[in-house]
């Protein structure tokens, strides 16, 4: 199927989840909008992810609520019935995304290259992006923009938040205040660093004149981890875990001086706001999933972990397995990166 960018009037983007991945996808979408401002874009997205991105300009969102089970596919088909797009960008390798794509009618259906088009994606697409040997997820997404003729794929972000959420963040973090935000919890507990080590870094930050705020979602795991961090040290921490919406959190991350986080959505949210991120990695390769603009601040035990589990060449994207890999990351290594961020920030100020 040939692809002629000059004949594109409508485009459908299929990327349901997760928070970090849709942040990467925004950079790709807005690269398309810069080159093709006239194109009508519809984004099929997950319910939670929509809450973060619903104010994006020039995009129609169609929510796919996976909690509805089989009805989610029926409802998507109903929402898109009678519509035909010029192009579908099928940007999610997951069986549910493959099934969801069957509800989307499009002349050109762009998917990943054959090596990455798993979960049956290659069966429902007729055009493939260029293969990349070892891409960051964001670079892999930008391949979709390139596939439709976008020439400037330099990532940038404009994710609007309501004025009320900006004002909320201004009340929490004063102008000029030095603040370390810790988003301590990943989606899986094994990817979380140890509470006492978070507390030790928080104490170091406080000693350096920083205020420390704990942020995160409302799950029991996140609340418990925040309490454990607060109880593990003597430094005064402000605990906002479970007390912010996604757009309020985005506004907070924008006003933070720096962010400390494992492989989790808020790390990538902070990147979209231009805030430096100290990323903590042991299970996944930060070259693939690390904070895109803060790779120099990553503390990684991934190579050590994967080398202990596999010999020879390791396939790009392979995860290291184990419940205690994050213990390989020392407090000293994180404090060293903290000092590097502080130094770089003062130099660029």
Question: What does this 3D model show about the protein?
Answer:
- The chain has 349 residues and is of the alpha/beta class.
- The chain has two domains: 143 residues, 3-Layer(aba) Sandwich (Rossmann fold), CATH 3.40.50; 186 residues, Rossmann fold (3-Layer(aba) Sandwich), CATH 3.40.50.2000.
- Helix content is 39%, strand content 16%.
- It is built from 13 helices and twelve strands.
- The strands form two sheets. A six-stranded parallel β-sheet has the order 3-2-1-4-5-6. Strands 9-8-7-10-11-12 form a six-stranded parallel β-sheet, sandwiched between helices.
- Helix 1 packs parallel to helix 10, helix 7 crosses helix 8 and helix 7 runs parallel beside helix 13.
- The chain starts with 9 loop residues before the first strand and ends with a helix.
Sheet with the most strands: spatial strand order: 3-2-1-4-5-6
Proportion of residues in extended strands = 15-25%
Can you tell me the overall shape? Answer: globular
- Assembly form of the protein: single chain
CATH architecture of the largest domain: 3-Layer(aba) Sandwich
Please provide the count of β strands.
Answer: 12
Please identify the structural class as seen in this structure: alpha/beta
Helical fraction equals 25-40%
Topology (elements, then pairings):
Blueprint: E1 10-14, H1 19-35, E2 40-46, H2 47-53, E3 59-64, H3 70-80, E4 85-90, H4 95-101, E5 106-111, E6 127-128, H5 137-147, H6 163-172, E7 179-183, H7 195-207, E8 211-215, H8 220-232, E9 238-239, H9 246-255, E10 258-262, H10 265-272, E11 277-281, H11 286-289, E12 299-300, H12 302-307, H13 331-348
Parallel strand pairs: 1-2, 1-4, 2-3, 4-5, 5-6, 7-8, 7-10, 8-9, 10-11, 11-12
């Amino acid at each position: 199927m040939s692809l002629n960018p000059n004949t594109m009037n409508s485009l459908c983007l299929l990327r349901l989840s997760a928070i970090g991945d849709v942040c990467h996808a925004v950079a790709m979408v807005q690269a398309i909008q810069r080159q093709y401002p006239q194109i009508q874009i519809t984004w099929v997205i997950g319910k939670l992810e929509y809450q973060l991105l619903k104010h994006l300009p020039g995009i129609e969102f169609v929510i796919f609520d996976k909690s509805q089970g089989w009805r989610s596919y029926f409802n998507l088909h109903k929402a898109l019935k009678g519509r035909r797009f010029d192009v579908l960008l099928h940007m999610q390798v997951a069986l549910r995304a493959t099934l969801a794509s069957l509800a989307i009618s499009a002349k050109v259906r762009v998917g990943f290259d054959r090596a990455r088009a798993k979960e049956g994606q290659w069966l429902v697409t007729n055009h493939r992006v260029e293969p990349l040997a070892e891409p960051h997820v964001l670079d892999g997404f930008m391949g979709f923009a390139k596939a439709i003729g976008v020439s400037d794929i330099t990532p940038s972000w404009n994710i609007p938040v309501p004025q009320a959420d900006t004002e909320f963040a201004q009340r929490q973090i004063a102008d000029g205040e030095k603040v370390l935000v810790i988003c301590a919890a990943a989606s899986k507990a094994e990817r979380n660093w140890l509470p006492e080590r978070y507390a030790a870094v928080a104490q170091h930050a406080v000693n350096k004149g920083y205020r420390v705020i704990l942020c995160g979602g409302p799950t029991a795991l996140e609340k418990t981890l925040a309490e454990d961090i607060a109880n593990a040290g003597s430094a005064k921490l402000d605990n906002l875990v479970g007390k912010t919406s996604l757009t309020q959190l985005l506004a907070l991350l924008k006003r933070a001086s720096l962010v400390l986080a494992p492989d989790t959505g808020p790390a990538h949210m902070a990147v979209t706001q231009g805030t430096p991120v100290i990323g903590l990695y042991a299970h996944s390769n930060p070259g693939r999933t690390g904070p895109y603009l803060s790779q120099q601040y990553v503390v990684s035990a991934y190579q050590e972990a994967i080398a202990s589990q596999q010999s020879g060449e390791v396939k790009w994207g392979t995860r290291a397995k184990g419940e205690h890999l994050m213990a390989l990351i020392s407090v000293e290594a994180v404090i060293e990166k903290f000092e590097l961020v502080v130094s770089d920030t003062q130099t660029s100020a």
